[in-house]
Design a protein that fits this description.
Blueprint: E1 6-9, E2 15-18, H1 39-55, H2 60-66, H3 71-87, H4 96-106, H5 111-128, H6 132-151, H7 169-173
Antiparallel strand pairs: 1-2
Helix pairs in contact: 1-2, 1-3, 1-5, 3-6, 5-6
Length: 194
């Protein structure tokens, strides 16, 4: 009789298959992911992230329909941003807040949008990289999401002075998902009140 194959989820949430053999234990743990070391690493990471973001039901339309983002045009500029932030290489001189303010005026960006962006970013980074720069990429993204929420005008904040905005706890809830399970699919869906 052939030994049974068991599929389970490891802590990295990747499906793995074990084939128990006589006297053999579980398969060895895979080598940890490398850190973000080069601009090429950033380009690959950003392509993966934007593929997921463009297809996402929560934030995809902001990229594809509202902003009309062309990845091949956007990629060099956003790679410059992350290269400057993580590798101290490129000379990025853009204003992400101004860009997001314009987008926000066309279709309001909420904590739900920034929370989902952060969730996808963290999953993309964790799926390919580990180390000091990978951790910095995630913490930088969190700071940016919170800064955007603070500085984008809300219905009760004048556009000229959007300081001191409210940061909903939803953004902090997405900050540290439990490592042994994927976030629930409905984590970002508002619950109806009864």
């Amino acid at each position: 009789m052939k030994p049974a194959h068991h599929t389970h989820l490891d802590l990295g949430l990747r499906a793995t298959t074990e084939s128990p053999a006589a006297g053999a234990g579980p398969a060895p743990e895979p080598a940890p992911h490398p850190d973000i070391e080069t601009r090429a690493d950033l380009e690959t990471l950003l392509r993966r992230f934007y593929r997921a973001a463009f297809a996402d039901p929560v934030i995809g339309a902001h990229f594809t329909e509202i902003a009309g983002t062309d990845l091949e045009t956007h990629l060099p500029r956003i790679t410059d941003f992350w290269d400057r932030a993580l590798l101290r290489g490129a000379d990025y001189r853009g204003d992400p807040l101004a860009i997001h303010r314009t987008l926000h005026e066309a279709a309001p960006l909420t904590a739900r949008h920034f929370g989902r962006w952060l969730q996808l970013w963290r999953a993309t980074v964790d799926g390919a990289h580990a180390g000091t720069r990978a951790r910095r990429a995630k913490s930088q993204a969190e700071r940016m999401a919170q800064a955007m929420l603070r500085h984008l005008p809300t219905p009760t904040t004048p556009t000229e002075h959007p300081q001191g905005g409210f940061i909903p706890l939803a953004t902090l809830h997405l900050r540290h998902p439990k490592p042994t399970q994927a976030p629930p699919q409905d984590a970002l869906t508002p619950k109806p009140t009864t």
